[in-house]
TrEMBL record:
SMART domains: Tryp_SPc. The keyword Methyltransferase does not apply. It holds the Pfam family Trypsin. InterPro entries: CLIP_Serine_Protease, Peptidase_S1_PA, Peptidase_S1_PA_chymotrypsin, Peptidase_S1A, Trypsin_dom, TRYPSIN_HIS, TRYPSIN_SER. Keywords: Disulfide bond, Hydrolase, Protease, Serine protease, Signal. Residues 182-441 form the Peptidase S1 domain. Residues 1-19 form the signal peptide. The keyword Ribosomal protein does not apply. This is Chymotrypsin-C-like. It comes from Galleria mellonella.
Length: 444
C-alpha cells in the first residue's frame, strides 16, 4: 500500500537574531525529554522530543536545522515512512510534496535564522525518520541514524518497534548450516527451526503431545490459547512441559532441552467458541540454554514489511501435524503458505470464514491439499525478513519473525480432521505485540 506524507502548512522559523542565541532561547512547549542527532556527523541538525504525551502522540518530534537561510533557499527532506510534517508559522516558507510520497519540499520566500518542523507518524505508532536532508543542493544527512526515538516510547509497547533494521542479536537465525529454503511439505533436519518447541500435557497417567509453541526468550513460549485451556479455562501449569531442539516426535534426538511450565498466561479476551484472541504465553520454570538446536525467534515488528521482497507475503509453518495418511508426522515437517487477502478467503467459504475471520486473524494457505493440520496448532506462521531490503535469493541472510499462530481450520465433513483443501486461520501476532511485551516484561 502506498505510504503518503501528509502536510499541514503551519511552520516555525524565526527570522531574527543569531543562530547561537536562538539555540539557547528556543524550546518546545512542555517538558523537554531530550535531543538526538538524526544525522551522524552533522551537529547543525538535531531532533527534540518531549515526555508525557499520549500513546497516539509519542511518535512526534521536532526536526531542527541551525543554519541561516537566505530568501529562495530550498530544503528537501525524505522520510522512511509516512509522516505528517507541520509548519508552525508559514510567514517565511512554503511546503509541499515532490517527486515521491516520502519527500517534502520547503522553499523560503523570506530569510530565516534557522529551521524547525514538527514530524509525526500515523496513528499506528510508526516513527518516521529522515533518510535525506538536502539544503540548497547540499546533503546534510549522509549518515542517517533512524531509531533515536524508539527507546523513549512509553505507551503501547507494540508501537515501539519501528526500526527499519531487524532486531539485533541472534533471534530468528539458525546456528546449524542450512543449504536451501523451504520446500512445501518436506521434512526438515535437526537445527532448522531451533525456536519450535513441542508442548506436552499430562492426561491421567500418560504424557501426550498436544501442540507446537515458539520460543521468544529464555523463559517465554508463544502459542495458541486453545492449546493451553480446557473449556476456555487455563490448565494447571504443572500439567504442561515443553521440549526444545526436538526433531523426532518420539525419541532419537541429539540435543533436546525439556522445561516445566511455571505460569500459563491466556489472553484476557480469549473466546473459546470462536477462537478470538487465540494467543497464550507459557513462562518456563527455568531458562533454556541457547545452543545450535535451541534459539529464540524474533517477534514481528512494524517496519518488517519494508524489508520484504515485493509480492505476496509467504510464511512457513512447521510441526508434527497430520500427514497425508492422517497420522502425526514422526519428524518435524514444514510447509510454506501464502497470506490470503480477507476478501478471497471469505468468498472461498462464506459460512465459515465470514463468521470467524476478523481484524485480529488472517487467512493463509492453498486449497490444493497443502495446509497446516491437526497437531500444528500453536506453532508459528513465520516470515523470513532479509537483512538487505527486498533481497529474495536463496542465499539471503536475515531473521525469521513470528507473524501468526496456527489457530483454526475447517474440518472435513463428519471427521475431526482438518480439510486440507481449505485455507487456515492464524492469530495475527502483529495485533498482539503490545500484549506480548507487557506480559513478558512484567513477568521477568
Amino acid at each position: 500500500m502506498k505510504t503518503v506524507v501528509k502536510i499541514l502548512v503551519i511552520f516555525n522559523i524565526l527570522s531574527c537574531g543569531q543562530t547561537s542565541d536562538l539555540v539557547k532561547k528556543w524550546g518546545i512547549v512542555g517538558t523537554p525529554l531530550g535531543r538526538a542527532r538524526p544525522c551522524k556527523g552533522n551537529d547543525v541538525v538535531d531532533a527534540s522530543f518531549e515526555a508525557g504525551l499520549s500513546p497516539e502522540e509519542e511518535n512526534m518530534y521536532h526536526l531542527n536545522i541551525y543554519e541561516v537561510f537566505p530568501a529562495q533557499s530550498r530544503i528537501i527532506i525524505k522520510f522512511d515512512s509516512e509522516a505528517t510534517v507541520t509548519l508552525v508559522n508559514d510567514t517565511v516558507a512554503r511546503i509541499r510534496t515532490i517527486k515521491s510520497d516520502l519527500e517534502v519540499f520547503i522553499s523560503f520566500f523570506k530569510p530565516a535564522s534557522y529551521f524547525s518542523v514538527i514530524v509525526k507518524g500515523p496513528q499506528t505508532g510508526t516513527v518516521p525518520y529522515p533518510t535525506s536532508i538536502v539544503v540548497n543542493t547540499v546533503e546534510y544527512c549522509e549518515h542517517p541514524a533512524p531509531g533515536f526515538l524508539d527507546g523513549v516510547i512509553e505507551g503501547y509497547k507494540g508501537t515501539a518497534h519501528v526500526a527499519l533494521t531487524v532486531p539485533t542479536g541472534s533471534c530468528g537465525r539458525r546456528k546449524v548450516t542450512h543449504t536451501e529454503l523451504i520446500v512445501n511439505g518436506q521434512p526438515t533436519k535437526p537445527g532448522d527451526w531451533p525456536w519450535h518447541g513441542a508442548i506436552y500435557r499430562l492426561e491421567q497417567y500418560s504424557v501426550k503431545y498436544i501442540c507446537g509453541g515458539t520460543l521468544i526468550s529464555k523463559t517465554f513460549v508463544l502459542t495458541a490459547a486453545h492449546c493451553t485451556t480446557i473449556n476456555g479455562e487455563p490448565v494447571l501449569a504443572e500439567l504442561l512441559s515443553i521440549i526444545f531442539g526436538k526433531y523426532h516426535l518420539t525419541g532419537g534426538d541429539v540435543a533436546t532441552q525439556e522445561r516445566e511450565v511455571h505460569q500459563v498466561i491466556v489472553h484476557e479476551e480469549y473466546n473459546a467458541r470462536k477462537l478470538d484472541n487465540d494467543i497464550a504465553l507459557l513462562k518456563l520454570k527455568t531458562e533454556v540454554t541457547y545452543d545450535d538446536y535451541v534459539q529464540p525467534a524474533c517477534l514481528w515488528h512494524a517496519n518488517a514489511y519494508k524489508k520484504l521482497p515485493t509480492g505476496t507475503i509467504k510464511g512457513t509453518v512447521v510441526g508434527w501435524g497430520f500427514n497425508h495418511n492422517d497420522q502425526l508426522s514422526s519428524t518435524l515437517h514444514q510447509v510454506t503458505l501464502p497470506k490470503i487477502l480477507d476478501g478471497p478467503c471469505i468468498k472461498s467459504n462464506t459460512a465459515f470464514f465470514g463468521r470467524l475471520l476478523n481484524n485480529r486473524k488472517f487467512c493463509a494457505g492453498y486449497r490444493n491439499g497443502t495446509s497446516a493440520c491437526n497437531g500444528d496448532s500453536g506453532g508459528a506462521y513465520q516470515v523470513f525478513v532479509p537483512d538487505v531490503t527486498g533481497e529474495s535469493s536463496a542465499n539471503a541472510t536475515g531473521a525469521w519473525h513470528v507473524r501468526g499462530i496456527v489457530s483454526l481450520a475447517l474440518s472435513r465433513p463428519n471427521e475431526p480432521i482438518c480439510d486440507n483443501t481449505q485455507y487456515t486461520l492464524f492469530t495475527d501476532v502483529a495485533s498482539f505485540v503490545g500484549w506480548i511485551k507487557r506480559h513478558t516484561e512484567a513477568n521477568n
